[in-house]
Amino acid sequence: FCNSGAEANEACIKLARRYMRVVRQRDAYEIITLGGCFHGRTLGALAATGRESLSNGFTPLPEGFRQVPAKDLEALRAAITPATAAVLVEVVQGEGGVVPLPADYLHGVQALCREKDILFLCDEVQAGFCRTGKFWAFQLYDLEPDAISMAKSLANGLPMGAMLATDEMARGFEAGSHATTFGGGALTSAVAAKTVEIMLRDHLAQRAAALGAHLKEQLQALGQRLPGKIREVRGVGLMLGIELSGDGQPVWEELLRRGYICNLSHGVTLRLLPPLTIDEADLDGFARVLEEVLRAN
Is 3.90.1150.10 the CATH number for 204-296? Predict the structure, then answer.
């Protein structure tokens, strides 16, 4: 347990390195990530993210990270060396603009990790906890990661993150290998336990799948009614991205003025991660207001 998604990813990275060196007796330490990713803002997580706009002024970053284009298995294969410890992926890239990676590509990444005897890690910080219509996003494609990172929804607003690993990979840590002062504190742990209980009790994954499909259908229909306004609607469950054809700033600002809070990613994509408990009527209201705003811009 820890306090944030960045810390959870740091734990994944540290465990991957220590597992390879201590358990497997291999000097493998490099972590490969994918273009468009986001793994956090600590120095190690920034190095994994590999985005110059975020690391500007904070260099030099820790070494031991490589990045390859997403959806390109051959580029990934070429990047793997004897020094490679793991590949870290987001099944749905959130900060990248809500970009679900193709199922065949993800299975190819996992298969390549097995072939090369390296670790397969999934960042579930944004996509986990029912967000995509499954409890974990990797379950959408029946993947079997060696470890996953999580945070955000875990304690329903209180700062908490965590890492889960298989029994085998967990052999890389011993008592004292890794720790944090407030990780697993009584208050946040109690809230997290109740949050997960409610998610399961109220079937919030299934609810996200149904509501997300409903909203996505509305948004795609809106794109057909307003040709030239929406380039693409992407995502799964209640994790959707609306990529606009032009500058998204005025649209985003007008939505805020009308009471709809969403994120603008890369200046063109409206990123929607509404509460898992949101009413369908509120989603319908957003779609109506978005249509009004797009017609006026």
Answer: yes
Q: Max alpha carbon distance in the chain (Å)?
A: 62
CATH classification number, 5-201, choose in 3.20.20.70, 3.40.640.10, 3.40.50.1480, 3.40.390.10: 3.40.640.10
Q: What is the pLDDT of residue 297?
A: 87
Kindly report, as residue ranges, where domains of CATH 3.90.1150.10 are found in the chain: 204-296
Which spans in the chain are helix H? 5-18, 43-49, 52-55, 73-79, 103-116, 167-170, 186-201, 204-225, 249-257, 280-296
Query: Per-residue pLDDT tens for 43-102?
Result: 999 999 999 999 999 999 999 999 999 999 999 999 999 999 999 999 999 998 999 999
Omega prior to 62 cis, within 30 of 0: no
> Quick one: average pLDDT of 124-153?
98
Residue 163's alpha-carbon distances to 125, 127, 137, 226, in angstroms, are 10, 14, 15, 43
Tokens of 259: 């009471």
The residue to which tokens 């291999």 are assigned: 26
Residues in the chain, overall count: 297
Angle at Cα 28 formed by Cα 90 and Cα 120, nearest 5°? 25
Q: What is the C-alpha separation between 259 and 246, in angstroms, rounded?
A: 22
